[in-house]
What does this fold into?
Amino acid sequence: MTNLQLKNISKEFNKIKVLSDINIEVKQGEFYSIVGPSGCGKTTLLRIIAGLEFADTGNVIIKNIDSTELSPQKRNVGIVFQNYALFPNMTVFENVAYGLEIKKENKNFGKDIIKEKVNLVLEKVQMSHKINNNVTTLSGGEQQRISLARVIVTEPDVILFDEPLSNLDYALRLETRNELKRLQREVGITSVYVTHDQTEALALSDRIAVLNKGIVQQTGTPYEVYYNPENSFVAEFIGHSNLFDAALSKEIFNVEINNDERLSVLPEELIPVANTENKIAKITDVQFTGFSIEYSISVKDLLVKALQPTHSVNEKFNVGDEVGLKLLSDKIRKVK
Amino acid sequence: MNRNKLTPVNIIFVCLILFFVIGYILFPLFSLLKESFLNQEKLLSFSSYESLFSQTALKATFNSILLSVITVIGSGLIGIYFAYIFQYHRIPNKSFFSTLLLIPLATPPLIGVVAFLFLLNESGLVSKLLMMLFNLQHALFRFDGWTAIIIIHIYSFYTMYFLFVASALKKIDTNLIDASYSMGATKTKTFFKIILPQLIPAIIGASLITFMASMASFTAPFIFGGSDRFLTTEIFNAKINGDNSFASSLSVLLTIISILFLILLRWYRSKKVLTIRHKSTPKTSVAQFKKGINYFSTFVSAMFTFLIMLPIMTLLFLSFIPEGSLMRNFFEESFTISNYSKIFSDSQFFDPFKNSIGMAIIAVVITLIIGVSSSFLIAKKNIKGKNFLESILSLPYGIPGTVIALSFILSFNTPTIFTALTSIVGTFWILPLAYAVRNLPLVTQSSIAGFHSIDPSLEEASQTLGASGFRTFKKIIVPLIFPSVLNGALLVFINSVGEFVSTILLYSYSTKTISVEIYSQIRMYNTGAAASYGIILFLMVMVIVYFSRKTLDKSVGVG
It folds into this structure.
């Protein structure tokens, strides 16, 4: 069942097109990511879904209700902001209860129900012990959890995440990412997640839309987008793929492709080899990360990356070594 | 919140703001300008501007500028020195000392002047002490003229540099200093090459403000100036002598100088200062200084703090000895609280007290209504001409109190629509209105900053949680701007309750204020009443500062 539908959304700021003809459908309970480099229009799209901006053309349909013209108050949509946007003049409890108190006026439920609901959601995010703290005393990760609790508790139709992990340090980011996934699965609320970090999008999402310059480049499951990029942007942005033009791919790999196409090779599928006649490439840098070894290799005027799991390496190269290149699989990926 | 739509309530406030701005800021300035182009027969003439080139006017202008330059240099050296040693040297009880060092900032100018008068005057405490010790018939020194004015100016204004430079020093990345030391630079070289360049913006900011305030300073030149002429006192004298057009042209000159500095200040603040920001910089104290230097700095700080406290201690002492003892040997007098009880029992003394409090409260209410509503419109709504409105609202900051008083007299001595079709010169109302105009920039600037400091995503979060515009305003915006508004309001109260500069031109017998009463008491050599008034005023200000700092400390800062 479709929960959120964006139809032909376009938006301009000062005559600069930031979104053109966006069509996205998000299913009930799905975790959907919109990923793209900064300035690609993803945050604007998120704000249009929330009603904080209005599209120039197109429709926003939430739970079968055309919400294009509705104010943010009238849509049942929650946002987890990049900077958390907790109300600094309120305690943890008051922040989480804020949305419920507004609902109380319509739905007529009492103070004890609010208390119960707040307690329950704080337990879910493991923050019950800080219920009476002032939010300004919380760490970044804790603020993040409260910000999420504040949204979950109002049971919105859609939760929007605006790069919620970008203000956390690396270790905390991984931990919070897992936590977020667990919560989303548990609560089952439809989520739209905006990020520029493709690893985050791959790890969290059921489906992904790749956005560049205000245009949807590709939609699909993380697996599809990673292994079957539809164009060179997606190949490079999502998989950090190496791209070879027709002449090079003929010369290096003996693979024939059309002149307007390029051969897309993921770093882990590119293997440097020593025992070959065709020593066309040269190692320019070697980085050992523990799990893998990453080679920077120059081929003609091109700089490519090859990534090899450490345990599968039988030949180790040093900077300056002359090598040949081969493909790991027979699967040929062509992009335009 | 819809930025483009004005609600009916908004429109009412727009009208109110326009009424105030036109009636009490622009119209008086216009009247002043008009008056400066009229001669005695009320005909168009440039004679008053020709008088600006007379010997006395030129001398007064020169003196005012010279005084301001000396004040800037003197206060700058002292303020920067203390900010530096308080940041880098080991001084025990630092925060205690630095609080005491900021006392002049909160002391109403007249109180400072009176305190110095009682301390260093011919018949003041020090002079009497010396005469007693050495059994002299005459005072050893006279405390007046340039020396007196400069000492009082430095006493009042070094705090600007102390505050500005201290906060700039705290922001300096200590790694930079460590880096400089580790590359072999001496402490002196590090100070001049690394630290000082980063202080330049703070020093320039403090200098512009000090220069402006010093040009506009009236109380010290008025009481100690004697035969030395300054622009502010010349305006006062011209007005008292009935030469309104000369007073006006002098005022125009002084205002133009001040406004130029105000524009310079605003332009300077609008420039972004280039800094490299890192997520976190260690705030540990850098390379240790030798013990001797630390002892020396502690000694200097203690001595200076003592000197800063001395005038107020003098006031306190004199407030507890009987009236008229200034002429006698007052070290032998017994203590009494009669000076204080007199203020609260004798209506001659209590009425000014009531007046000052009442006028200050009215000024606070007016500035709150106009200041907060206009900053809301400026910060949160897209209205045409809001930059212009903001400039006009900060204009009074650049107009000396003497000039505001004069322009009020010239504007409101005839009935106007702004004064309910009556003349308010000589009435109660002209005083709180003048205080409100003088202090309006304090409230507008602090509330605009308050509104801007609210993260827009807080409002959006509230909206998406279903809150109406009104609810967001009540629950989120009001609590968050409250501390800045309160702070502005308390400053207005402090400035108004002891205001002297415009009061001395605007009061009448029935609307005497504390400051005017203190002035008339010292002219009659009544030390007791003047000193106890001074102490009451001082305590009132200190209590307010203490509580406002407490509420500000408790107030929320987004984490």
Chain A has nine helices and 18 strands. The first strand of chain A starts at residue 2 and ends at 13. The two ends of chain A are 33 Å apart (CA to CA).
